[in-house]
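FW: tagging you since you asked about this chain on Friday. Here's the raw sequence from the shared folder, copied in full. Didn't touch anything.
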Amino acid sequence: MLDGALVVWTLPHLPTEAAPRIDLSGLDKMDTAGAWYLAEAQHSGARLEGLKPNHAQLMETVATAIPEPDPVPPVVPHWKQILTRTGMRTMQALGYFKELSEYLGRFLAAGIRAIRHPSQFRLTSLVYHCQETGVRAIPIVFTMSFLIGVVLAFQGAAQLSRFGAEVFVVDLIAIAVLRELGILLTAIVVAGRTASALTASIGSMKMREEIDAMRTFGMDPDMVLTLPRVLALVITLPILGLIADVAGLVGGAVMSWITLGISPPMFLTRLSEIDVSHVIVGLSKAPFFAVIIGIIGVHGGMRVGKDAESLGQMTSKSVVNAIFAVIIADALFSVFFSVIGL
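HL: got it, structure written out here
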């Protein structure tokens, strides 16, 4: 508030002889808003005349309290932004891989401990999780693999019939299902089904502080939670992979009979000529896929916070990471088996 002040203005930022002049000799009272206004005017080049000492002190206090504008950040080149984001993502991925390695070590340590002290192993929990991850997944795995075999036979017949090589549809179905698609698609289904269930169940226990209660009572969460769940996956995933192989071959045989007239005995005769190494290659991946899915699911559950939003985020993250890791592992196995000639 400015009382009794005669203000004479000209344009700001002019030379000194033409600077605005503010006569404050008649000013009796001034609040902080008026002091701020006069301080800004003085900063812009105005001359204050007749300013009283107490008003000058108030203006000095207000001017000192005025915040400095934030400095304008320098413009970062686009290529540098890309490198920065890439480096941050790489460090996050390495940190995530380090955490998974820790949980893998804890799982192996719990397994060794169970071998040395069988009384501490929870067989009932293992049987329960085998039922949940294995038996209950059989219908969806069988249906999916059967349809995949049907699609392979139909598409293979459409392409190979142009060259009069319809009989090689059996080889196409057998090698594709037994070596790659059977176990890979089964692992993807189990990753979406079981990894989310592991993260949700362990995460909900962590939200309710049940895991802290286990540690208080002297119970090892690795023995109680991690070992039975991951071991159940290691046991059931090869069985599910074998069921998927059989279902895929059955679906391919049915469609080959319908579209190409290849009877089941002829299909079996041609199938018997396929090298058994394809079956070995496919099923040998199953335990590794099971460990990957189980460790990622358990890790996600242990990382859940105290709120439901964190539970949902970690559940979806576990599913995506498990599927992605399974596909990468399958690619690495394909390169490895190709190098060793198997």
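FW: The beta strands are 6-8, 21-23, 47-49.
HL: agreed, and Residues 1-16 have pLDDT under 50 and may be disordered.
FW: great, closing this out.
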